[in-house]
Predict the structure.
Amino acid sequence: MMLRHTAAIVHRELLSLFTSPIAYIILFTFLLVNGATFHYYLRVLDGELAAVIASQFGAPVFWFLCLVAPPLITMRAFAEERRAGTFELLISTGIGDPALIFGKFLGGWIFQAILWCALLPLFLLLDSVGQIDWGVIVSLYIGLLLIGALFTSIGVLASSLTQNQLVAAVLAFSVNLAIFFLSFLRYLFDRGTLENRFFEHVSPLHHFGRDFSQGVVDIQTLVLYFGVIAWALFLTAKVLERRRWS
Amino acid sequence: MIEVVDLQRTLGRRLVLREVSFCVPPGRIAGFLGPNGAGKTTTMRILTTILPPDPGSGRVVVAGLDVREHPREVCRRVGYLPESMPIYPELRVIEYLRYRARLKGIPHQRMRTRIGESMELCGLASESRRTLGVLSKGFRQRVGLADALLSEPEVLILDEPTSGLDPQQVAEVRQLIARIGERSTILLSSHVLGEVEQVCDLIVILAEGTVRARETREGWVSRLERAGGLELLLRDPPGDASHRIRALEGVREVDSKGDRFTITADRDVREAMFRLAVERRWTVLELASRPATLESLFLEVVAEEASLS
C-alpha cells in the first residue's frame, strides 16, 4: 500500500510541476545557461573534451543552478498543500507520513533528474565530434543525482516548516548555500589538520572536483549523502507529526 | 455508526472539547450544530483521524473501529468533505478523482467504476475534463462529495457542505445528501438550521466545547411543539390583560407591545385564550399560533450556555 501511495504522490507532484509555468521556466533557464557555458568552455579550452566537462561541472554557474533549482522545485511540496488546505484532505485518506514524504521527495528528485537528462544530447553531440569518457559521464550523473537528492531533501524539510512557498524556497536556498560554503571553511585550517580534512570531507565542491568529475564514486561520500538525506526526511516526519498536535 | 464518549481535545493550551459524548446510529443523518468556535470542526477532524484525541481521553468509534487503534482502517471507511473544498486548481476533475482513489487504496480494477458512479451521483459526468480551478463553488463541492463517496464509505462527515452555494445549488446538494443518507451514516455540520430540519434524523448541539443538547427528530419536534406560542391582537386591551393571560395554565411568558401580545406556553393554550377573551369581553382582532423553530431551540440552548458561563 505504501508503494501505491508513494506512486500516487509522485505522479501528482510531476503532473503539478509540468502543468505550472515554474517547471518550464526552470527547464528553459537550465538548458540555456548550460548550453551557453558549454559553448564558452568549448571555445576557451579549444575542444579539449575532458577539460570542458570538468570545467562545466565546476563552474560557478553550475553550482548556482544546483543550489537554486531544488528549492524552486520543492517549495510547493508541503507549504502549498497546507496553505490551500489540501493537506488535511491528504491525510484524511490514511496515507502514512513515510509514503507522503517519500512521494514528495521522489517527485522533486525525478524532476531534477529530468533536468540533468536534458543535457544528455549535449554529451552525445560532443561524442560525435570527439571521444568522451562515458565512465566519467556516468560518475558525474551519479554525483548530480546524489547532490540533487540532498538538496531536494532539504527543500522538502523547509517546505514542511512554513505555509509560504517563498519562505520555504529562501530557507532551503540558505541551507544549501551554507552547505556549499562549508567547502571554504577548510581554508581556515592548516592543510592536513583534522578540521581541514573534516571540511574537505563534507564539501560537495570537493566531491565533484576530486571524485565525480574524475570518474570516481567514493563509498564514504555515498554514505555521507544518504545520511544527510535520511536525516532531513526524518526531521520532515517529525515536523509533520508535530503539526498534527497544533 | 459513530460513537463518541467523553472526548477531550486540547489545542495549544486551550481545552477545545470537554467530555463530548454522542452517538449516531447506522444509516442515520445527524445534524451537528453549534456557534462558530464551538468545536464542531475539531470533533470532525478527530472523527476523520486528521487530529488525534488527547491521550487517555474517552473513546471515539467510527464504523465500528476505534480511531486511535485503527486510524488507517477508519480512513478507508469514512468520507470527509471539509468546510471549503480545497482543490488542486491545475488538475482535471477526472485526474483529481483518480489521484484520490489511488490514495484511498481503491483497487485498480474497481477504480473506473467507482469514479464513474460517484461522478454520476454528484452530477459531474459531463464535467470530468474540466480543470478544478475554473469550476464554480457549487461544482467544487460536488467534486468534494464525489471524492468523499469514492470508497463507498460507511460514514460520511460533511462540514458545512452548502456554505457559500446559491439557492439552487443548496437544494441540489441537500437532495444529494438525502440520497446518500439512504445507505451511509452521515454527520452533517451546518449553520443553516432549515437544512438540518429538512434532512437530519437527529441533532447534536455543541457550545463551548461541550454537548448542550442531543435530540432525535421526534424529540425535537415535540420540544418545538411544547415551546410554541400565540400572537394575540386585542382592541383597547385593559391594563390587567397581560396579568390575566399570564395566569392561564401553561403560559410561561407574555410580552406585550401596545395592543399586541406574544405568548410563550408549554402547551396548546389557544382554547383557554379564546375562553378568557369571551369571559372578559375582549375584542380579539387576531389570534394566531406562533410555532417554535429549530432556530429558536438552538438559540435557547446556546443562550443557556452563555448565561451559565
